[in-house]
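Whiteboard transcription, Tuesday session. T.W. wrote the structure tokens on the left side:
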């Protein structure tokens, strides 16, 4: 049985079968990551293909075969963010110092929720909130880097994340979603 590390080594030598096996092993994972940011199935599939083509051409730069999965996922996320830019999606700048003080806090204690309820609540967020929330809370990308990716200030990213988090907690607390 060929290990993922062996497949990457074979890919670095130009083995197309190894590349196909890597695709088969990781495509669903990468596609699901893309779908967190891209709603249109066809566009998500295009980004998936572009991601693997770029990865194949750049695989020689990968120094640690064990980091292939996060590496290719990061390529996919960057491509999804670039798709936003191509559509010229406007991300609104906010005044972070004045807005946070006005935001009501949500008490997280006293209610339970499932992952499906959380996922459903996240999907209901406005696009910018969902994007920032996913990048920060799910993908664990630093807020400064998110700001650079989205072309906004770090303060605005913090506000967008705070609002997204509060909205998710509010939806969960109100019980809008089935248990």
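and on the right, the sequence the group agreed on:
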């Amino acid at each position: 049985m060929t290990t993922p590390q062996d497949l990457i080594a074979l890919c670095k030598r130009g083995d197309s079968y190894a590349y196909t096996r890597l695709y088969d092993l990781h495509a669903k994972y990468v596609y699901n990551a893309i779908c967190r940011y891209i709603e249109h199935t066809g566009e998500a599939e295009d980004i998936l293909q572009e991601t693997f083509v770029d990865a194949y051409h750049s695989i020689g730069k990968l120094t640690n075969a064990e980091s292939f999965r996060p590496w290719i996922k990061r390529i996919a996320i960057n491509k999804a963010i670039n798709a936003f830019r191509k559509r010229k999606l406007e991300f609104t700048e906010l005044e972070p110092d004045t807005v946070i003080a006005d935001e009501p806090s949500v008490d997280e204690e006293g209610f339970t929720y499932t992952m499906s309820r959380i996922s459903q609540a996240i999907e209901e967020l406005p696009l910018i909130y969902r994007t920032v929330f996913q990048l920060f809370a799910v993908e664990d990308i630093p807020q400064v880097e998110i700001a650079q990716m989205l072309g906004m200030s770090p303060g605005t990213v913090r506000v967008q994340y705070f609002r997204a988090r509060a909205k998710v907690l509010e939806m969960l607390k109100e019980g809008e979603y089935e248990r």
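Someone added at the bottom: The CA atoms of residues 92 and 152 lie 8 Å apart.
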